[in-house]
Design brief:
By secondary structure, the chain is mainly alpha-helical. The protein has one domain (about 5-190). It contains seven helices and two strands. It has helices at about 5-15, 20-40, 40-45, 80-110, 120-150, 165-185, 200-210, and strands spanning about 50-55, 65-70. It has a two-stranded antiparallel ribbon. Helix 1 runs antiparallel to helix 2. The radius of gyration is 22 Å and the shape is elongated. The two termini are about 40 Å apart.
């Protein structure tokens, strides 16, 4: 959940600090990625003493339906609530980062004359917008599946069946967002002419400052 947050943050740093963004982003990746890898431990430490068991599914699943669950977790904590709080936190951070990004890009774009805005730059901006919407969509859908599990598991509601596809939704968030960005951004197209190559955001910002 935290890796999609890095994309708007890195681009926001490029827009905000056009002269020093390389150094800032280098340090961000160098220290941020290891922290992101260790971050899940804060939300799963209580599972270390837990024991995995084969558990009977509750209603409305038929007799014989089983799943792998855990018992004897530390302090009796459950993973679903920690996962929900984690999802809300990263979704909020991603939305705020993208709002700031669009504001900064819009401010820089307003300083340019129309002839200076290339078609490739417009396509790149559209790609970022589509990718952002894909990220937010998966945050919302994962949260919806998680809430269905919390409120409807063990009831006779058909919403309890939604937990079956919830793991696939988690995997799709990582795969689909990456593919959307790859398929829509002009930088990944081999037939792009030199004159239509996408401008980096740093050069875009410098042109905006020079046009003032």
């Amino acid at each position: 959940m935290s890796f999609p947050f890095l994309m708007p943050v890195i681009r926001l740093i490029i827009v905000t600090f056009p002269k020093t963004h390389t150094k800032i982003n280098t340090n961000l990746i160098r220290y941020g990625v290891p922290l992101i890898f260790t971050f899940p431990i804060c939300f799963t430490f209580y599972l270390i003493p837990a024991l995995g068991v084969c558990k009977q599914r509750a209603a409305p699943y038929p007799f014989g339906a089983v799943w792998i669950y855990y018992i004897n977790s530390a302090f009796g904590l459950r993973n679903s609530f920690f996962h929900l709080y984690n999802l809300i936190f990263w979704m909020t951070c991603s939305v705020l980062a993208n709002v700031l990004l669009f504001y900064q890009v819009g401010q820089a774009r307003a300083r340019l004359i129309r002839a200076q805005t290339s078609g490739a730059s417009m396509k790149a901006h559209t790609s970022i917008t589509i990718t952002t919407l894909a990220m937010i969509t998966f945050y919302v859908t994962n949260g919806a599946f998680l809430l269905m599990y919390i409120f409807y598991y063990g009831t006779n509601s058909y919403f309890s069946y939604a937990e079956i596809i919830r793991p696939f939704g988690n995997d799709l968030q990582t795969c689909v967002v990456t593919w959307v960005f790859y398929l829509t951004h002009p930088a990944f197209r081999k037939n792009t002419h030199d004159s239509d190559m996408v401008f980096s955001t740093s050069s875009f910002r410098r042109r905006a400052n020079n046009s003032v």
